[in-house]
Design brief:
about 180 residues; alpha/beta; Dihydrofolate Reductase, subunit A; eight-stranded mixed beta sheet; two-stranded antiparallel sheet
């Protein structure tokens, strides 16, 4: 069975974007991005909400340097599933749209996939966490407080976590890897 992982870059107070919807403070430097690349390398399928997909699709065509080019290649090679009721077309290869989040379909995907699966976007990941579908969380906490915005983790969900790994990066980012 494939692992379903959630990776988020968040402020120390737990937000992936601030109250204005900005997340420029979360851009990973080369050291952090290289580490993220190694986490994402075994992923064969990315599950996204619409907004996260629209953010990530830049990797399809953008001109990238070194460690960023490596991530673009990883991203392009993976299948992508976008959960959206409003999106009608996609602008990346190997991508399909699903109108509704379907926990049973994701469970089936986990059972049949030969590679790991990631889920991106706090809202869709929150639904998957609440349904007990997410196996691991990779959290990168940046040395910034933004005071509010979109939370990285869902409200109202209680579950035990097992710390698997931790790391501090030169730029002050702290990585925490948990099994749910």
């Amino acid at each position: 069975m494939a692992n379903l992982t959630y990776l988020a870059i968040a402020s120390l107070d737990g937000y992936i974007e601030d109250e204005r919807g900005k997340f420029d403070w979360a851009a990973p430097d080369e050291e952090v991005h290289g580490f993220v690349n190694d986490i994402e390398r075994p992923v064969g399928i990315h599950l996204y909400g619409r907004r996260m997909y629209e953010t990530m699709v830049w990797w399809e065509t953008g001109d990238h340097e070194a460690v960023y080019r490596d991530y673009a290649e990883i991203w392009r090679a993976a299948e992508k599933v976008v959960y959206s009721r409003t999106l009608r077309t996609v602008s990346s290869e190997r991508t399909r749209i699903e109108g509704e989040f379907d926990a049973a379909a994701i469970k089936q995907l986990k059972e049949s996939s030969r590679s790991d699966i990631s889920i991106g976007g706090a809202e869709i990941a929150g639904q998957a966490i609440a349904e007990g579908l997410v196996d691991e969380c990779h959290l990168f906490l940046g040395p910034v407080l933004v005071g509010g915005g979109k939370r990285a983790l869902p409200v109202g969900v209680q579950t035990e976590l097992e710390l698997l790994d931790e790391r501090r990066f030169r730029n002050g980012v702290v990585y925490l890897h948990y099994r749910l």
